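Hey team,

Filing this mostly as a record. A colleague (T.K.) asked me to run one chain through the structure pipeline before their review meeting, and I want the input and output archived in the tracker in case anyone asks later how it was produced. No errors, nothing strange. Just documentation.

Input sequence:
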Amino acid sequence: MRAHYAFSVIALSGLILAGCSTLPGDDGVAATTGEWLTRSGEAIGAQSRRLAEWFGRDEASDDEAMRPELLEERQTLLDQPYIDPLTRYLETHAEDPRYADVLTDLSHERDRRCAAIANKYAERPASRENLALYRRGYLYSCPAEVNAFYARVRKEEVRRPVARPQPESAPEPETDDAPLAEHDEQVEEVLDRRKSNDCYLLFTIRNLGEAKEVCRTPAEQGDARAQRHMGSMAELEGQLEEAMRWYRRAADNGDAQARERLEAVAASSRDAGDEDAR
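Output structure:
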C-alpha cells in the first residue's frame, strides 16, 4: 500500500507539473459530465450491489484502507489551480472502482473550471487569435467549450461582409483568409476521446443507465473498452445474445477481458441449453 501511495504521489506531482490550463477567479457553472456523474440514487445503489457481485469483490475490502490516501490525492488536485492535472487523473483511474467517489468530485471540479473559462472567453471577440489561445490552453481538458468557441468564430466570419479589393489601393499583407472548415478535425478527435472517457467513468461509478447511453457511440466507432462495457451491461440485464455480440466485437479489437467473458457466456449458454434438452 505504501508503494502504491508513493507511486501515486509521484504520478500526481507529474500531473500537476504537466498541467497548463489555469482557472480564472470567477466562478463557473458545472457542465454536463459532472451532472452525469452525480445522478445516483436507489437505482444506482442497486446496480452497484449487482456489479459488486458481478466482479466478485467485497466493496469494503480495499476501499476503506485506501480512502485516506485517495482523499489526500483528491485534496491536492483540488488545491492546485490547473485543469489538465484533473483530466489526466480522471483518465488514469477511469476504470478503477476504488476511485469512484474521487472521480466524481474531480469531474465536477474540472467541468466547473471549464465553464469558468468558457464564461471568460464569451466576453472576448470571436477572432481567430482568441480561438488559437483557447485551443492552445484548454483543448485537452475542455474540448466541448473550445468547439463552441470555434463555431462562434466560424459564424462570425460567415456573417462578415467580404471586402472588395480597390484597384488603386496598396496591396494587403498576405494572410490566411481561407474560411474555417465546418468542423475542426483536431477538436473532433479530442471530443471523441472525451466521450470514451465519460463512458469509462460512468461504468466505473456504476451509473449504468447513463453509461449505456454514453458508451454506445464510442462502442459503435470501435472503442474496445466501450464495447466490453456494453457487453457487461447487456449481460447484467440477461441479454446474453446482445452481450456476446458486444464481447465478440471487443475481442476482435484485442480486448482480452472481453474474450474471457465471451467464452464464459458462451459456455453458460451451452450449459443452459443442455439443461433444457434433458
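Quick notes for T.K.: Confidence is low (pLDDT under 50) at residues 1-10, 25-49, 55-60, 172-176. The radius of gyration is 23 Å.
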